[in-house]
Write a structure and sequence with these properties.
The structure is a single chain. The protein is of the alpha+beta class. Among the domains are: 93 residues, no CATH class; 97 residues, no CATH class; 235 residues, 2-Layer Sandwich (Nucleotidyltransferase, domain 5), CATH 3.30.420. It is built from 23 helices and 19 strands. The strands form five sheets. It has a seven-stranded antiparallel beta sheet. The chain has a five-stranded mixed beta sheet with strand order 5-4-1-7-8, sandwiched between helices. Strand 12 and strand 13 form a beta hairpin. The longest helix is centred in the last third of the chain and has 19 residues. The protein starts with 6 loop residues before the first helix and ends in a 10-residue tail after the last helix.
Length: 698
């Protein structure tokens, strides 16, 4: 009885080629063959004949012409076509490789046992028995794999296994599972050759990382884990949807210049700083950065730099003459209006304590709705983009500066670090240089965007519509919403005449409305703060979420700008009884005087003083009289430098900055109008003013 043909076979038999037609695009996508390496002449002629016939078939020539060139029948031709389209072990179709004789033959699978034939040799008839053994007894392979991986109860196995020990493990397992006369126990070699082949072709390819971890150590396993597949640390993501954050130590010894009351310049020896980097993964653009003048990065530092990433990074204060952005340079949220307040869908972090803080996690997960992916400790490949950018900046920029210390104690750059303090890079020059370098990298060719510039690549993605930003809602575009709330209770002290207020970090806050709301005493509210400016906090009602209003810091804390680190620094010294009596009467000057007295002999306090002065220097809401006094002072310094002398004229009077109005949402405060205030002595403004502290070099 004849076997009925399938529908496809019937169509082929009738000469219908509609379902088996191939085009030139498919033919070009197939793996090719190097004809010069085919040694057999008959195989070469057969391949050339078949390859030419498939090319003609893709061009639409008649079937008669194609079969005449191939010298095979129609059924055989379509059988070869199916084999060309079938998958190969390398994950690609066989393609033209299937046209080479005996090159794409499937591995035979043995199903029968060995027959005792007196005519065959004693060593014959064992081909395929090892694979049949593992298929019929999967528990043998499972136990062998577990012992070779050295996991669980097998973790106490020797660190290095030679093949003799592996074979002994295999035989012991077989003795527990098989009879004494079963294969491989009934052979002289006991399966050594197929076991060795199984290790190379099956076990090691499937368990490469575990095998290398046990045999060669964790470093080899880590490298092997990222050498598989495409070699990429992360799966492909959409444009501007994946960000990476990391910190690096600035391996450069810097200085900070202070001008004393007598007009002498003193260069302070500071500790190394930290730099936070935010990088876009797909195109490699630098989104934002921040130089933290402290030993460690805090959670509020990360929150602040993420605000800069979505709101726009402001240029650093110019400190190096002639150093500026290239045309079109900058940071994405500032250069592209379409990317302001655009959010990522995933952020890659490491396991630093600041990255695990509730403030950062809440910002990304709750406010942004993004996903947090924490990398494993000691595995930089999971954040390859930001890690490679950090290394590149270290080699191209930081290690080229004077007083560079290198990345390790054995670095040859340590000799260069032995410089006098006044010959080092100033901290403002260092910040200006890093800012310019990162901004210009955005308009320089990068391998991440196929050697186009990141900004040009982003512009093309926007124009093509492939970049579809997801924006932060307008109601959430305030800096104080980026930091987690703090629960506070409204209190009052009638005996001292204190109207209703709330306490936050050792300072009382109130407003005209709250001061008259005695019915709210004892009520709990949520406080939102911008870590960069603690003069103003925002009060929110628990339960309804209604914003109750901004509150002003009372007393001297509301008279000058300060951030979370400065407030905590002051509270630390106060708790340690480092101040004299009554530090709350003038907290900023008490803190400055304490740090100034110890900065010459203590690098840690010199770094704290550098941070204090650098922070105050970034604010521009000082009264006009202070600005005018400092302009007079700078003009006098220019004249003194020209005359090779140092003159220090004293302004008649310099007022203190008044309490500011409510600042706009954002990292940079708004300018406050000038107002009359208390008068300070001349010497105090010269010694203390961050605007008038530097030596003018012309």
């Amino acid at each position: 009885m004849a076997t009925p043909l399938s529908s496809a076979a019937k169509q082929r038999g009738r000469g219908s080629l509609r379902n088996d037609r191939i085009d030139e695009a498919e033919l070009k996508s197939w793996p090719t063959v190097d004809e010069s390496l085919i040694t057999d002449a008959d195989d070469l002629a057969r391949y050339q004949r078949l390859a030419q016939s498939f090319e003609w078939y893709s061009q639409g020539r008649t079937m008669a012409v194609v079969l005449a060139q191939a010298k095979v029948g129609k059924r055989r031709f379509f059988k070869l076509l199916e084999r060309c389209r079938s998958g190969a072990p390398d994950g690609l179709p066989h393609g033209l490789r299937a046209l080479v004789e005996r090159s794409c033959i499937a591995t035979p699978v043995r199903t029968s046992g060995r027959k005792d034939d007196p005519k065959q040799k004693e060593s014959a008839g064992y081909s395929g028995l090892f694979g049949k053994l593992l298929r019929e007894h999967p528990e043998i392979e499972k136990e062998l794999v577990a012992k070779l991986r050295r996991k669980g109860q097998h973790r106490l196995a020797p660190n290095t296994l030679n093949f003799r020990f592996v074979h002994r493990i295999f035989i012991n397992i077989c003795k527990e599972e098989l009879a004494e006369d079963a294969y491989p126990l009934n052979t002289l070699s006991q399966g050594r050759a197929p076991l060795r082949r199984w290790l190379r072709t099956d076990f090691i390819p499937r368990h490469t990382v575990a095998w290398m971890a046990a045999e060669s150590g964790p470093d080899a396993a880590q490298a092997a884990s990222y050498a598989q597949g495409s070699g990429q640390d992360t799966a492909p993501v959409a444009v501007y949807k994946a960000w990476q954050i990391d910190e690096q130590t600035v391996n450069v010894l810097a200085r900070f210049d202070m001008i004393s009351e007598s007009g002498h310049v003193e260069s302070l020896d500071t500790e190394r700083y930290q730099v936070i980097r935010v990088v876009e993964v797909r195109g490699g653009a630098n989104l934002a950065w921040s130089m933290v003048i402290a030993r460690q990065v805090g959670a509020h530092d990360l929150v602040a730099v993420l605000w800069d990433a979505v709101n726009g990074q402001e240029p650093a204060r110019a400190a190096v003459q002639g150093l500026s952005y290239q045309p079109g340079g900058g940071f994405p949220a500032k250069v592209f209006p379409e990317l302001r307040f655009a959010l990522p869908s995933v952020i890659y972090l490491d396991n630093a304590l600041a990255h695990l803080a509730e403030a950062l996690q809440r910002l990304v997960l709750e406010l942004w709705g993004a996903t947090v992916r924490l990398g494993r400790p000691g595995v930089p490949q999971e954040r390859a983009k930001v890690e490679s950018d950090i290394k590149l900046m270290t080699e191209q920029l930081l290690h080229q500066m004077p007083a560079a210390t290198g990345s390790s104690p054995r670095s040859t750059l340590r000799k260069r670090a032995n410089r006098a303090v006044n010959q080092r890079v100033d901290c403002a020059e260092l910040a200006h240089t890093i800012d310019t370098y990162l901004a210009n990298r955005n308009v320089s060719p990068s391998a991440a965007c196929h050697y186009d510039t990141p900004f040009h690549w982003i512009r093309r993605q926007l124009e093509a519509g492939r970049l579809q930003p997801v924006y932060l809602p307008v109601a959430k575009r305030f800096a104080h919403l980026f930091y987690p709330p703090t629960i506070a209770t409204i209190r009052a002290d009638m005996d001292r005449g204190r109207r209703p207020f709330v306490n936050f970090l050792g300072s009382r806050y109130s407003s005209d409305v709250l001061a008259s709301s005695f019915h709210l005493i004892g009520t709990k509210y949520a406080i939102r703060v911008d870590p960069r400016d603690l003069r103003i906090v925002h009060l929110y009602e628990i339960g309804s979420g209604h914003q109750w209003g901004p509150l002003q810091a009372l007393g001297r804390w509301g008279a000058f700008p300060h951030d979370l680190r400065i407030r905590k620094m002051y509270l630390l010294f106060k708790r340690q009884a480092e101040f004299s009596e009554g530090p709350a009467d003038d907290p900023l000057e008490r803190l400055y005087s304490h740090l100034r007295a110890r900065a010459s002999t203590n690098r840690h306090d010199a770094t704290r003083l550098t941070y204090l002065m650098t922070y105050l220097e970034g604010w521009t809401d000082a009264p006009q009289s202070i600005a005018e006094a400092c302009q007079v002072w700078r003009a006098a310094q220019d004249a003194a430098n020209d005359a090779a002398t140092l003159a220090l004229p004293a302004p008649a009077s310099v007022p203190v900055a008044p309490p500011p109005q409510e600042p706009q949402a954002g990292p940079s405060p708004a300018k406050a109008p000038a107002a009359p205030a208390e008068v300070l002595p001349t010497a105090r403004i010269v010694a203390f003013s961050p605007i008038a502290r530097r030596r003018v070099t012309g």
